Amino acid sequence: xxxxxxxxxxxxxxxxxxxxxxxxxxxxxxxxxxxxxxxxxxxxxxxxxxxxxxxxxxxxxxxxxxxxxxxxxxxxxxxxxxxxxxxxxxxxxxxxxxxxxxxxxxxxxxxxxxxxxxxxxxxxxxxxxxxx
Length: 132
Hints:
By secondary structure, the chain is of the alpha+beta class. It is built from four helices and six strands; from the N terminus they run ββββαααβαβ.
């Protein structure tokens, strides 16, 4: 497909004590995590929305409704893989993705490559296409 599209995705979840924290598919040892119907991974969720939006395929809530009990606790990387599969089936290709996390904690600088690798693995693309 010769058409070039850009998708932008944003996600936010509340932090809560005793909830596991997963960012970019990577678990963090942190006393608070992101509350969600899935694992709450805001980086993966924003990327899902960016992919779906660019291909005009709806959004994360359309594909993975939060009121579906079968999806409770779903791994966000699985959601990302499925969204990417649908985007590819529509004839689109991921060229690159830049993911930005806005927050004071946790510090992610030392784990950016690990997150990029996890996201790329779910997408089936080279980690060099993903920036966190």
